[in-house]
Amino acid sequence: MSAASETLTDVPVGGLLDRERIIAQPGFNRWLVPPAALAIHLCIGMAYGFSVFWLPLTQAVGVTERVACADLTLLSALFTMSCDWRVSDLGWIYTLFFVLLGCSAAIWGGWLERAGPRKAGVVAAFCWCGGIAIAALGVMLHQLWMMWLGAGVIGGIGLGLGYISPVSTLIKWFPDRRGMATGMAIMGFGGGAMIGAPLADMLMNAFKSPDSVGVWQTFLVMAAIYFVFMMGGAFGYRIPPAGWRPDGWTPPAKSAKSMITARHVHLRDAHKTKQFWLIWAVLTLNVSAGIGVIGMASPMLQEIFGGRLIGSPELTFGALDASQKTAIAAIAAGFAGLLSLFNIGGRFFWASLSDKIGRKNTYYAFFLIGIVLYALAPTAAHMGSQVAFVLMFCVILSMYGGGFATIPAYLADIFGTQFVGAIHGRLLTAWATAGIIGPVVVNYIREAQINAGIPREQVYDFTMYILAGMLLLGLVCNMLVKPLADKWYMSDEEVASLQAKTAAADSGPTGSFGIGRGGFDAKALAAWAVVGIPILWGVWITLQKTAALF
Questions:
Q1: CATH for 36-245, options being 3.90.1530.30, 1.20.1250.20, 1.10.10.10, 3.30.420.10
Q2: Overall pTM surpassing 0.85 (yes/no)
Q3: From the DSSP assignment, how many helices (H) and strands (E) are in the chain?
Q4: What number does CATH give the domain 257-490?
């Protein structure tokens, strides 16, 4: 023990952001790492809540009423200073978020493994918060291209780096609870909008004036708040020394059918395996089904149930007057908030459950339960049972979030932990793909149904069956995932060489080295309070808005 401690103490101290600088020392508590990850994920998770800005920004020029231009095209909208933007013009930022998230995670995942999570977290903070600040300038100057570039492109790169920054680190800190560890962090991405959206609404109302809708001021304040939290999270990261393991834990025994390997696949080889592409398809299909529903949650509830939401079941959506539509829009906002809450809870619940039942079985549950719920949703809608309909989609969204939180542990089980962050980054191109497929399927089928004269309360029926079909394909892909052949794994010598390059001084006998102990001591509780209090506030606000649904 003393020899190991001396070895760790002799770690060369590089620059403040260098990987060698953040190797944990004896006495470090591993429970300090998840709140650091949450601090970053809660900030970048506001990407889900950016739609709160769309309607105010459609009146950025007129302020009190929209200045519409009949000849406005997407290209002219990028540069106009006299016409108000349309929601469809602004919505491209949402698409850019998730396309750039997936692409940047894939491109820079390997760099992250070499540079370490602290440096990646700092770069993510500058990109995400700097991108929002550039977007604020775009609103001030009324230049949509600047918003696309700032929030969408630069901010999207920050999303990708921030999203994957803690994954490899957490899996290495919690080899005994891989699913729970990644679930704790990644639930923050689902919860970011639950906190950020009501905060943004409060700030916009505070900054609103006869000359401004209050958006650019809100962007700047939120960018400053997020920068503080993200930098705190980045500097809270620590990585375990090579050979570290929790006290009293031994790796599970390898069996012929085991889906958990104790070996490692190199980043250069992971994408050459069929298992990588099967898991890619699994994530793509699970996310495509869920993300399309998230994007249309509010109008879907309003159009399907119409007057039933306000106690007038005889009124369809088209028969409602302006005040009634305003009333049901507020109720639908509660539905969107409730979905967000289940999205968050599902990330922790399903990922933790996967530690007990296995990652493959967890995805079987996602697909089988999802197929049944999507197939039954139209029936619940035709029966007029809004409670059943809402509960069905709450479960569906819990599995959507659970899919994201479970996938890093699934990858670690199959490919090992040495390059899991970079492999996860490449796999997130599935998210970028799903970010296009899901909304396109839901939105275009809806438009086609409306144009065909289908009543609005029935336009989503066909969509639900299509989404159920997607999940059926996902079920087949998950069924085909098998353990890797031995030829794909690195030799013990190659692994030792890689670990020596990234942490040359931390080699030593396998053990805890006095690291990782402490549980929820005072320091850990303080760190959890910093992220826990905003989460509780967001939950409280969401539950208040949701009450009208029931």
A1: 1.20.1250.20
A2: no
A3: 21, 0
A4: 1.20.1250.20
